[in-house]
Write a structure and sequence with these properties.
Order of helices and strands of chain B: HH
Largest interface: A-B, 46 and 36 residues
Helix content of chain A: over 70%
Order of helices and strands of chain A: HEEEEHHHHH
CATH architecture of chain A: Up-down Bundle
Structural class of chain B: mainly alpha
Number of helices of chain B: 2
Oligomer: heterodimer
Strand order of the largest sheet of chain A: 1-4
Number of strands of chain A: 4
CATH class of chain A: Mainly Alpha
Strand content of chain B: under 5%
Radius of gyration of chain B: 27 Å
Number of domains of chain B: 1
Radius of gyration of chain A: 23 Å
């Protein structure tokens, strides 16, 4: 009978493909089916397009949102797994949980970078600045610094046991920033980061469908990448064990 | 071009480089990680196969 780990490993590649297809379709829909959103009003008059009266400037820059928001959500979801595995490590002291927490954080870092890059370009165009201390930006920036700090801590501590304990504690602390980052637009309303996850998001289906497809697609990709990295690390552990075995066989007196 | 139409679409062309750059950089970050992950897995699989062969040869030796 196949183990759960074996099934997950087998699922990794199909999920990567499914994720890639979903994200590609979402990308196409975002630029073909999803309408352009309205910006500031034009100085005078209107234009009739397909029976609709257009009285505002149309914003292409908003198209960044179709990937920006899903990758941000996936980065936060990956940190949930970091926290879960960190707690499990602190409870059991099993190194496999520490490995899983590290890889979940690694995947999260990739998605954090994607979020920051896309957000920065939107901000540069819309506001003409590379950075501003807006609440969501600030809390997410802190999140990014904590994630980077996680890897700095890991590299700074040489003792595996201490390294795992320190990074597990930090992994839990990082996750504390996730709900703060998620809720900040509800606590301090901002026109830049609208509240999307609610019963009525205000998004019409042509905009909501590509957004949700990208969200599911990036979720699949993140899971597949995590499994791929986990498999590589588990094999690396086997390689190290075999090297020791070979060394002992070559020189039986060596410890 | 009709001046109203020109004003309505005035931000589209200027925003295009930023939108293209945002999507291109997001794909690039993801692609780099996918390549890094795949290469790391492949390299480890090759190392493991070579080591397993070496261990098997050693065990077969009288």
């Amino acid at each position: 009978m196949l183990s759960k780990a074996h099934i997950f490993d087998k699922l990794a590649l199909p999920l990567l493909v499914v994720g890639g297809v979903l994200v590609t379709v979402a990308f196409v829909l975002a630029f073909t089916v999803a309408p352009l959103v309205s910006g500031e009003a034009v100085s005078s008059g209107f234009l009739e397009i397909d029976g609709h009266f257009i009285t505002n400037k149309l914003l292409l820059s908003q198209k960044i949102f179709y990937f920006h928001m899903p990758v941000a959500v996936v980065s936060m979801a990956a940190l949930l797994f970091t926290a879960i595995y960190s707690i499990l490590f602190l409870k059991t002291r099993e190194s496999s949980y520490d490995l899983r927490a590290r890889l979940a954080t690694e995947v999260s870092l990739v998605f954090v970078l994607m979020t920051m890059v896309s957000g920065e370009l939107w901000e540069r165009y819309e506001w003409g600045v590379w950075w501003t201390w807006e609440p969501r930006l600030t809390t997410y920036f802190i999140l990014m610094l904590l994630v980077v700090g996680y890897f700095i801590v890991r590299n700074a501590v040489s003792d595996p046991e201490r390294r795992a304990v320190y990074s597990s504690v930090l992994g839990i602390i990082i996750f504390i920033d996730v709900p703060i980052c998620f809720m900040v637009t509800r606590l301090i309303p901002s026109s830049v980061h609208p509240v999307i996850f609610r019963t009525d998001s205000g998004l019409p289906p042509p905009m909501l469908i590509p957004l949700l497809m990208a969200l599911v697609g990036f979720g699949c990709i993140a899971f597949a990448l995590y499994r791929q990295r986990l498999r590589a690390e588990q094999l690396r552990e086997r390689v190290e064990a075999l090297k020791i075995k070979l060394d002992e066989a070559t020189d039986p007196g060596r410890e | 071009m009709d001046p109203i139409q020109a004003e309505i679409y005035s931000t589209v062309l200027t925003a295009a480089p930023y939108v293209i750059a945002a999507y291109a950089l997001m794909w690039l970050v993801l692609l780099i990680y996918i390549i890094f992950g795949s290469r790391s897995l492949k390299k480890t699989e090759q190392q493991l196969a070579a080591l397993e062969e070496a261990v098997a040869q050693r065990e077969d030796r009288p």
